């Protein structure tokens, strides 16, 4: 597809979503609840065509570069996963709406100021081969009353199309909301992704999820066009086993952090206090091998924080390294990784305090797995992604609560 054709396609989706936004913005709480409840129900009722489309995506995955078992696992849907997606949407529907008035203050002279929250309007999303993200993002946009333009790549496009056709669109219509409020770009061409981040007048904010360099390139292009982004490009959980760790707990957390290999918050870098290294590293390597995984041991021929979840064919790898103590572990987690999440395993509160005070990343844990850094598990709401930016704004799991703009309204008396 040419650049012009891609831009025209995405712009058409943006215009349709913008035109439908009024229908979503004026929807009351009951309508939003009906839409989300219908979406959850329709995932079950439409399971047959959705799973059939997903099976075609899985079968075609090698032809579009999705090869490793972890990436295939992220792409695959089944009845159980559809049921879990439905459960999360029902939980989202039960959460309270965001109150539009955040604060009120009387100004000198008697004028009243209200700080309000307003939807962004139209929000774009470009994401990797994870069909569940189609539903996660759509449900949160509906909950926050933002229209959306969704775009995924070739690996998951059939699945996204089926989810949109059999669940998202019909659910909106059932609630009396214009189904065009959530638009899907039906093109796998990468020019469509570039177009999505180049239309600030139609799509001023784009959620970016995917592999590091691809997402970083889109974020740079968005900045050139004046489009703001919430980017989720890199991950990799860190686990530090302190000298005062309960070794049984440490082994349990290692295993818990590796239940799925293709996710961003999995255990990626395993640091061990130097006094334990000679003995515990042997036990850790044995535990990894028992799980069908491989340990990368010093001297490493890769960056210490290399993210194995993005390394197709090498996802079943964990990097091990010794460190002097909690301060060095926190420093390495800060400087060698994306800053997504890190945990310390220790029975010593002083060591935990030193690690937690030194680590500047998004999720910091003590005797708990980095797999907990997830919107639904931490906040009770599905996430659009996990933001690791070191700037003010939504950081960590981004949910419907974050998809608003502040507005200051001033007038006489009660505004």
For the terminal residues, how far apart are their CA atoms? 51 Å
The main β sheet shows up as: 6 strands, parallel
- The low-confidence runs, each spanning 5 or more residues with pLDDT under 50, are none
Quickly count the helices.
14
* Secondary-structure class: alpha/beta
Q: According to CATH, what is the class of the largest domain? A: Alpha Beta
Q: Round the Cα radius of gyration to an integer and report it.
A: 23 Å
Explained architecture:
The structure is a single chain. With 415 residues, the chain is α/β, with parallel strands linked by helices. The chain folds into two domains: 3-234 and 394-412, Aldehyde Dehydrogenase, Chain A, domain 1 (3-Layer(aba) Sandwich); 237-376, 3-Layer(aba) Sandwich (Aldehyde Dehydrogenase, Chain A, domain 2). Helix content is 44%, strand content 21%. The chain has helices at 3-25, 29-45, 47-60, 69-75, 79-94, 131-143, 157-174, 190-196, 212-225, 247-256, 274-290, 326-336, 349-358, 375-379, and strands spanning 101-106, 111-119, 122-127, 147-152, 182-184, 205-209, 228-232, 237-241, 267-273, 294-296, 317-323, 341-345, 363-366, 385-387, 396-398, 404-412. The protein has a six-stranded parallel beta sheet with strand order 10-11-9-8-12-13, with helices on both faces. Strand 12 (341-345), helix 13 and strand 13 form a beta-alpha-beta unit. Helix 1 (3-25) packs across helix 8 and helix 5 (79-94) packs parallel to helix 6. The longest helix has 23 residues, at 3-25.
